[in-house]
Amino acid sequence: MTLELNSTTNTPLMNLHFTSQTKTCCKCVLTFFSWLSLISETENEVISVDSALYGRADRNTCSQGRPFWQLFNTGCSQSGILNFIKERCELKQKCEVRMSDVRNPDPCWGTFKYLQTDFTCLAAGKISSPLSGNWQVISVLSAFYGRRERNVCNDCPLAMSQNVNCENPTDVVAEECNGKKHCNIKAANSMFGDPCKGTRKYLEVTYVCICK
Q: From which domain of life does this come (predicted)?
Protein backbone atom coordinates (compact mmCIF):
# COMPACT_ATOMS: atom_id res chain seq x y z
CA MET A 1 0.00 0.00 0.00
CA THR A 2 1.26 3.49 -0.85
CA LEU A 3 0.39 6.72 0.93
CA GLU A 4 0.29 9.82 -1.28
CA LEU A 5 0.78 13.34 0.06
CA ASN A 6 -0.14 16.21 -2.23
CA SER A 7 0.05 19.97 -1.79
CA THR A 8 -2.53 20.56 -4.55
CA THR A 9 -5.29 18.37 -3.15
CA ASN A 10 -8.88 19.68 -3.23
CA THR A 11 -9.37 19.01 0.47
CA PRO A 12 -9.02 22.04 2.77
CA LEU A 13 -5.42 23.06 3.09
CA MET A 14 -3.87 23.88 6.42
CA ASN A 15 -2.26 27.08 7.55
CA LEU A 16 -0.43 27.98 10.75
CA HIS A 17 -1.45 30.61 13.26
CA PHE A 18 0.03 31.82 16.55
CA THR A 19 -1.36 30.21 19.68
CA SER A 20 1.03 31.26 22.43
CA GLN A 21 3.66 33.77 23.40
CA THR A 22 7.27 33.49 22.36
CA LYS A 23 9.42 31.21 24.52
CA THR A 24 13.14 31.36 25.09
CA CYS A 25 15.51 28.42 25.43
CA CYS A 26 19.06 29.05 26.57
CA LYS A 27 21.98 26.66 27.08
CA CYS A 28 25.33 27.63 28.56
CA VAL A 29 28.20 25.94 26.75
CA LEU A 30 29.55 23.97 29.69
CA THR A 31 30.46 20.71 27.96
CA PHE A 32 31.07 19.52 24.44
CA PHE A 33 28.25 16.97 24.75
CA SER A 34 25.43 19.21 26.04
CA TRP A 35 22.14 19.69 24.19
CA LEU A 36 19.56 22.43 23.68
CA SER A 37 15.98 21.08 23.52
CA LEU A 38 12.97 22.82 21.97
CA ILE A 39 9.58 21.24 22.73
CA SER A 40 6.08 22.36 21.73
CA GLU A 41 3.44 22.54 24.47
CA THR A 42 0.94 20.06 22.97
CA GLU A 43 0.91 17.37 20.29
CA ASN A 44 -1.14 19.69 18.06
CA GLU A 45 1.51 22.40 18.02
CA VAL A 46 4.78 22.80 16.17
CA ILE A 47 7.86 24.97 16.64
CA SER A 48 8.47 28.18 14.73
CA VAL A 49 11.97 29.56 15.34
CA ASP A 50 11.99 33.36 15.68
CA SER A 51 15.63 34.10 16.52
CA ALA A 52 18.84 32.38 17.54
CA LEU A 53 22.18 33.45 19.00
CA TYR A 54 25.39 31.54 19.61
CA GLY A 55 27.85 33.84 21.31
CA ARG A 56 27.16 36.57 23.87
CA ALA A 57 24.77 39.55 23.81
CA ASP A 58 24.95 40.62 27.48
CA ARG A 59 27.10 40.16 30.58
CA ASN A 60 24.43 38.52 32.77
CA THR A 61 23.39 35.39 30.86
CA CYS A 62 25.44 32.31 31.80
CA SER A 63 27.81 34.48 33.85
CA GLN A 64 27.96 32.62 37.17
CA GLY A 65 31.52 31.85 38.21
CA ARG A 66 33.02 33.40 35.08
CA PRO A 67 35.81 36.01 35.13
CA PHE A 68 34.98 39.44 33.73
CA TRP A 69 37.19 39.05 30.68
CA GLN A 70 35.08 36.07 29.51
CA LEU A 71 31.91 38.22 29.66
CA PHE A 72 33.22 41.53 28.32
CA ASN A 73 32.51 40.99 24.61
CA THR A 74 28.74 41.41 24.15
CA GLY A 75 28.80 41.76 20.38
CA CYS A 76 29.66 38.15 19.69
CA SER A 77 27.37 36.07 17.47
CA GLN A 78 28.02 33.20 15.09
CA SER A 79 26.75 33.97 11.59
CA GLY A 80 24.22 31.55 10.09
CA ILE A 81 23.04 30.16 13.44
CA LEU A 82 19.37 31.08 12.82
CA ASN A 83 19.23 29.06 9.59
CA PHE A 84 21.09 26.22 11.32
CA ILE A 85 18.44 25.99 14.07
CA LYS A 86 15.57 26.38 11.59
CA GLU A 87 16.84 23.48 9.50
CA ARG A 88 16.67 21.21 12.54
CA CYS A 89 13.62 22.53 14.40
CA GLU A 90 11.23 24.48 12.17
CA LEU A 91 7.68 23.01 12.14
CA LYS A 92 8.68 20.06 14.34
CA GLN A 93 7.05 19.14 17.64
CA LYS A 94 10.41 18.76 19.34
CA CYS A 95 14.06 18.88 18.45
CA GLU A 96 17.47 18.73 20.05
CA VAL A 97 20.56 20.63 18.97
CA ARG A 98 23.97 19.32 19.97
CA MET A 99 26.34 21.98 21.19
CA SER A 100 29.18 20.17 19.45
CA ASP A 101 27.48 20.95 16.12
CA VAL A 102 27.42 24.72 16.67
CA ARG A 103 30.73 25.41 18.41
CA ASN A 104 32.74 25.78 15.21
CA PRO A 105 33.72 28.18 13.91
CA ASP A 106 34.26 30.02 17.19
CA PRO A 107 32.73 33.53 16.75
CA CYS A 108 34.78 35.08 19.57
CA TRP A 109 37.72 33.21 21.05
CA GLY A 110 38.08 33.59 24.82
CA THR A 111 34.47 34.68 25.41
CA PHE A 112 32.20 32.33 27.37
CA LYS A 113 29.35 31.66 24.97
CA TYR A 114 25.79 30.37 25.11
CA LEU A 115 23.15 29.21 22.64
CA GLN A 116 19.84 31.04 22.94
CA THR A 117 16.75 30.48 20.80
CA ASP A 118 13.39 32.26 20.82
CA PHE A 119 10.55 30.22 19.36
CA THR A 120 6.76 30.27 19.14
CA CYS A 121 4.36 27.33 19.28
CA LEU A 122 2.02 27.20 16.28
CA ALA A 123 -1.14 25.15 15.76
CA ALA A 124 -2.64 23.95 12.49
CA GLY A 125 -5.94 25.52 11.47
CA LYS A 126 -8.08 25.59 8.33
CA ILE A 127 -8.25 28.62 6.08
CA SER A 128 -11.19 29.45 3.82
CA SER A 129 -9.20 30.76 0.85
CA PRO A 130 -6.03 28.69 0.48
CA LEU A 131 -3.16 29.99 -1.61
CA SER A 132 -2.60 28.54 -5.03
CA GLY A 133 -1.10 25.07 -4.84
CA ASN A 134 1.66 26.22 -7.19
CA TRP A 135 3.16 28.17 -4.28
CA GLN A 136 2.79 25.48 -1.63
CA VAL A 137 4.84 22.49 -0.59
CA ILE A 138 4.49 19.71 1.97
CA SER A 139 5.76 20.03 5.53
CA VAL A 140 5.37 16.86 7.62
CA LEU A 141 4.52 17.49 11.29
CA SER A 142 4.52 13.90 12.50
CA ALA A 143 4.32 10.33 11.25
CA PHE A 144 4.09 6.89 12.79
CA TYR A 145 3.90 3.34 11.51
CA GLY A 146 2.08 0.74 13.61
CA ARG A 147 -1.31 0.69 15.34
CA ARG A 148 -2.86 2.78 18.11
CA GLU A 149 -6.57 2.33 17.31
CA ARG A 150 -8.63 -0.81 16.73
CA ASN A 151 -11.09 0.71 14.27
CA VAL A 152 -8.52 1.94 11.73
CA CYS A 153 -7.61 -0.41 8.86
CA ASN A 154 -9.45 -3.21 10.66
CA ASP A 155 -10.37 -5.34 7.63
CA CYS A 156 -8.35 -8.19 9.08
CA PRO A 157 -8.71 -11.01 11.65
CA LEU A 158 -9.62 -9.62 15.09
CA ALA A 159 -6.36 -10.77 16.65
CA MET A 160 -4.39 -8.61 14.23
CA SER A 161 -6.05 -5.35 15.35
CA GLN A 162 -6.06 -5.77 19.15
CA ASN A 163 -2.57 -4.49 19.92
CA VAL A 164 -2.95 -0.69 20.07
CA ASN A 165 0.38 -0.09 21.79
CA CYS A 166 2.32 -0.63 18.60
CA GLU A 167 3.86 2.63 17.49
CA ASN A 168 7.07 3.44 15.69
CA PRO A 169 7.54 7.21 15.14
CA THR A 170 9.48 7.81 11.98
CA ASP A 171 11.41 10.61 10.27
CA VAL A 172 11.40 8.77 6.95
CA VAL A 173 8.26 10.52 5.67
CA ALA A 174 9.61 13.98 6.51
CA GLU A 175 12.93 13.16 4.85
CA GLU A 176 11.17 11.96 1.70
CA CYS A 177 8.38 14.55 1.44
CA ASN A 178 9.33 17.87 3.05
CA GLY A 179 9.62 20.67 0.51
CA LYS A 180 7.95 18.68 -2.29
CA LYS A 181 4.60 19.30 -4.00
CA HIS A 182 3.71 15.61 -3.83
CA CYS A 183 5.31 12.33 -2.79
CA ASN A 184 4.51 8.64 -2.45
CA ILE A 185 5.51 6.54 0.55
CA LYS A 186 5.18 2.77 0.68
CA ALA A 187 3.55 1.66 3.96
CA ALA A 188 5.44 -1.56 4.56
CA ASN A 189 7.75 -3.25 7.05
CA SER A 190 10.52 -3.03 4.48
CA MET A 191 10.36 0.76 4.74
CA PHE A 192 9.72 1.29 8.47
CA GLY A 193 10.62 -1.98 10.19
CA ASP A 194 8.19 -4.18 12.14
CA PRO A 195 7.39 -2.68 15.58
CA CYS A 196 4.90 -5.46 16.47
CA LYS A 197 4.89 -8.78 14.67
CA GLY A 198 1.47 -10.25 13.93
CA THR A 199 -0.35 -6.89 14.14
CA ARG A 200 -1.92 -5.24 11.09
CA LYS A 201 -0.10 -1.92 10.81
CA TYR A 202 -0.84 1.36 9.07
CA LEU A 203 1.01 4.57 8.31
CA GLU A 204 -0.45 7.79 9.72
CA VAL A 205 0.93 11.18 8.67
CA THR A 206 0.07 14.70 9.80
CA TYR A 207 1.21 17.41 7.43
CA VAL A 208 0.52 20.99 6.41
CA CYS A 209 0.93 22.90 3.17
CA ILE A 210 3.22 25.90 3.47
CA CYS A 211 4.48 28.59 1.11
CA LYS A 212 7.75 27.86 -0.64
A: Eukaryota
d(CA 55, CA 73): 9
Q: How many CA atoms lie within 13 A of 166 on its CB side?
A: 22
pLDDT < 70 positions in the chain: 1-24, 27, 29-35, 41-44, 122-135, 168-169, 212
Burial class (CB in 10 A: 0-12, 13-18, 19+), 211: exposed
User: Where are the domains positioned within the chain?
Assistant: 14-125, 131-211
pTM above 0.85, yes or no: no
14-125, which class in CATH? mainly beta
Looking at domain 131-211, its CATH architecture is Sandwich (2.60)
If you ran DSSP here, which 8-state letter would residue 100 be given? Answer: G
Give Cα separations from 57 to 29, 73, 78, 111, 132 (angstroms). Answer: 14, 8, 11, 11, 41
Q: Using DSSP, state whether 103 is helix, strand or coil.
A: coil
pLDDT value of residue 57: 92
DSSP conformational letter for 143: E
